[in-house]
Amino acid sequence: MHSSAFFYGFLGFQKVVIFARLIEGHSHSHPEKGLPNRQIEAVVAHEFGHWRNRHSEKGLLFWHFMQISTVILTLWLRSKEIIYQAFGFPVDQPNAIIKNSGNMYLPGMLIAYYFILRMYHHFFQTMHQLQQREFEIHADQYAIQLGYGTILEQALIKIVKDHEGFPSADLLYSLFHHNHPCLLERLQRLQEHQHNRRNSQIHQNQDQNNNRGLQ
Ligand SMILES: [Zn+2]
């Protein structure tokens, strides 16, 4: 939950950090700001969702894959003559700069990275952002499992209100620029998940009752 609490770390080093501004009454000039204890519990339940679903490890793995694959592709592309030709380097002349410079040719690396791999990098950054947004939804769903669904909704509304945030954003813009879904999108996903959970529990109870009737 940005600007109020977050989870970080992996393996034996994992922490949930809560900002003091999340706590009700932290501000003497604005005593109405902050969350009551139950809503803070809901926020912590959300952060536990990141821990339970191993979001730190998954995010780190994805980020490293992106970085390492970018380096490998840059190194591979730097020796491709077509890159130099495309940017006007004389690769077919006897004294061509590419022939005399060996494999570690800096201009080739710069061209490969700045003009070609940037697109690749942007693509992965967008994928990383979409992954982060989905992690938020999964962490919310874990808070619902712990029984904090409605309280988390109240907490999210209060956080946005306290920070005078805007509750909505254009979905396309948000997908590319926000690593958290906007409030309305998040509330909608929370309510959908709670509704589905209630329905599946009702069906489970009905099945159990039917089975008892048959015995
Ligand atoms: Zn979160």
From TrEMBL:
Cofactor requirement: Zn(2+)
Keyword Protease included in the entry's annotation: yes
Pfam family, one: Peptidase_M48
Keyword Ion transport: no
Annotated spans, Disordered: 193-215
Alphabetical keyword list: Hydrolase, Metal-binding, Metalloprotease, Protease, Zinc
Domain (Peptidase M48): residue spans on this chain: 2-192
Ranges annotated as biased composition (Polar residues): 201-215
Note on cofactor: Binds 1 zinc ion per subunit.
Gene3D superfamilies: Metalloproteases ('zincins'), catalytic domain
TM stretches of this protein: none
Family: Belongs to the peptidase M48 family.
Protein name, entry field: Peptidase M48 domain-containing protein
Gene source species: Orchesella dallaii
